TrEMBL record:
InterPro entries: OxRdtase_Mopterin-bd_dom, OxRdtase_Mopterin-bd_sf
Region Disordered: start-end pairs: 150-174
Biased composition regions of type Low complexity, renumbered to the chain: 158-174
Name under which the protein is recorded: Molybdopterin-dependent oxidoreductase
Annotated signal peptide: none
Domain of life of the source: Bacteria
UniProt xrefs under Pfam families: Oxidored_molyb
Domain Oxidoreductase molybdopterin-binding positions: 6-146
């Protein structure tokens, strides 16, 4: 049997951790029956199981749980696969106070373990398979400081610029 695939979870205000697909069993598993269109393979029908992406990320980035809604609404999650394919989901898509989408880090595909090949990002509800990243090698979470509206430099009012630094307190544990 080939060695288990690993992936790295990293980002702003958190320690970097490396996980194996088998370690995803420490979180509650969810099942998603999905149908999506793939440009190269046509319509796909699959059953995936694995934990919710938000459950995994909040374990290693606990400040997300306590951040205010506006702070959470600007967070992005970028997922990279072994083939360098990348997809981005907004944290708000997964957050129960916003979209509450059951986005998974799948450990199985159609009943087969993904242990040797790597877990898969599963975005139920997407009609297109472009955000179904297979053989995940990295997951990054952080906030992007978008350019705000231009303002008159003579205006001394504050608030146009996004806050500097991470959107939540730094993780103090190991």
């Amino acid at each position: 049997m080939p060695p288990a695939a690993e992936f790295r979870v990293h980002g702003e205000a958190m320690r970097t951790v490396t996980l194996r697909v088998g370690e995803l069993a420490r979180w509650p598993s969810h099942r998603a029956e999905v149908t999506f269109s793939c440009l190269t393979s046509g319509t796909q029908h699959h059953v995936f199981t694995g934990p919710l992406l938000r459950d995994v990320l909040t374990t290693f980035c606990p400040g997300v749980r306590t951040a205010r809604r506006k702070e959470r609404s600007r967070l992005l999650v970028a997922v990279t696969g072994r083939d360098c394919h990348q997809a981005v989901v907004a944290w708000a898509e997964t957050d129960p106070e916003f979209g509450n989408a059951p986005i998974l880090l799948a450990a199985t595909l159609d009943g087969r373990s993904l242990e040797s090949g790597g877990c898969q990002l599963v975005v139920p509800g997407d009609a297109c398979g472009a955000r179904y990243v297979s053989s995940v090698t990295g997951i990054w979470i952080g906030a992007h400081a978008f350019a705000g509206p231009t303002r008159d430099p003579r205006d001394t009012a504050t608030g146009d610029a996004p806050p500097a630094g991470p959107a939540w307190p730094a993780h103090s544990g190991s």
